[in-house]
Amino acid sequence: MKETNEKADEPLATSHTRRASIEDMRLSELGYVASFQRTRSFKTILFMTLAIAAVPYGLGGPLLVGIIGGGPLSLFVGLLVVLVLDGAVALSLAELSSRYPTSAGPYYWTFQLASGGSANLNSRSRAVLYSYLNGWIWLIGNWTIALSVNFGFASLIAGTIAIYIPDWTATEWQLLLIFYCICLLTFAICFLSDRFLPMVDTAAATTTLVTVVAIAIALSVTAKAGRHDAAYALGHYDGSLSGYPTGFSFFIGLLPPAYTFSAIGMITSMAEECRHPEKEVPKALMSVIPIGGVAALFFLLPICFTLPPVEDILAAPYSQALPYIVHTVMGTRAGAVIIMTFVFGVTLFCSISITITASRCTFAFSRDKAVPFWSLWSSMYHRQPFAALVLVTVVEMLLGLINLGSSSAFTAFVSVGVVALALGYIIPITTSLFNGRREVSVAPWNAGPWLGPVANVVAILWISFELVLFSMPTSLPVTEVSMNYASVVLTGFAGLGVIFYYTYGRKSKFPLSPIPIDSTSYSC
């Protein structure tokens, strides 16, 4: 009892310091020295994950694709289907992040699972190769998904400007300049506000909530384009718009919700800045699906009930359906711009969160000497990976130049973001399942011997289908412009990864060591 009272009287700062020391000791057991301050709690990690999902942008940006995929039924039922399937993915990632709470994330999990805790030279060599390739693909996914958010943001802005100036058409270089401004603004916020980012995460969650409620009320109250009954809003399906067979068009409608929740696994890169990461990161991953799902329903249902004529939506400027729908349904330019300004806020917070996590991923992979000039990209400035943040921003801006030469090639890079992240997920999940889930069975947070394997199998099947779906054109017939070159671009990136490994990575002595299953203690 005396010990309990002493702990109760202990100052909160001292308690947090002691806890951070324990967590840093556990991190050292995983092979790393702590570089970050642990300033994030479950609440801020959850808010950051919700900011990454960014429901109004995640669903609103590619909304036109969902309409092409069949309309209201594809949007509504497709969302419910994706929530179940991505719930299995989130659960699978939650177990792995609990077992290995490090910013290295999927490529570190892959190494430990592939090596099986064995120090055998052949096992380690094979595990290093798998881990390196997975890390390279994971890194590309982080960079290109950040690119997709910022360029999607630029397209939303251009589509909103078209509400006020219908005759204005942004040239490719004007769109590029908007994109560059977004990249630089995001960089400035991430760098200058690093110590306040947990508060930014809270603001992001608040903005998402306010935006969803504002859109739901604004569209439901005005409905200038008319209202649909429940049979149409929840069950109308037109499978002819995509050009695919009628039944398959439904799967095209899965793309917007799948894109929305595609990047939630990036939150694992924040494990080294979180208190109780072995529990709080998994809880955030599991919470974002139901919370984000409810927000998505509140966002989507008013749109389905007030949807303007589909043929008009298909002609929306810059393929941005959301600004057109909001303007048409509200019947006022000023009101539409106000609503879209809220969406811009959500998208900016999404860009900030994804850029932060991408910089942590870049730092972690560089820390393991896996990229050229690793010592630069893994350097710290005032306890933040400034050089890695610069690299993420520069890579985005350079890839943005591709849009000047080929919009179809640029679209491929956007699709690659989702596909590469999905590959980053599926490799460790599959390896864990085939290893009999020995590692995750000893994690502080795990789904147990029955639910866990079922979730793993569902996640593997869903991700495998996603890899195909995001590599397909969204409509037929296929032209040079509408063709999806994601598989070609991803193959090229994977080829570069192989070349880097054999010319550089293998020589860099990838400093990972196998960890026996029972080596890490979580009791205290």
TrEMBL record:
Q: Name the principal localization, coarsely classed.
A: membrane
* Gene Ontology molecular function: any one: transmembrane transporter activity
User: Can you say where in the cell this protein is located?
Assistant: Membrane
Give the signal peptide, or none: none
Q: Name one GO cellular component term.
A: membrane
Question: Does this entry carry the keyword Nucleotide-binding?
Answer: no
The UniProt record lists the keyword Transmembrane: yes
- How does the entry describe its membrane topology? Multi-pass membrane protein
UniProt keyword terms in alphabetical order: Membrane, Transmembrane, Transmembrane helix, Transport
Q: Which residues cross the membrane?
A: 45-69, 75-94, 136-165, 171-192, 204-223, 243-267, 288-308, 336-365, 386-404, 410-435, 447-465, 485-504
| Superkingdom of the source species | Eukaryota
* Name of the protein this chain belongs to: Choline transport protein
Q: Which organism is it from?
A: Fusarium oxysporum (Fusarium vascular wilt)
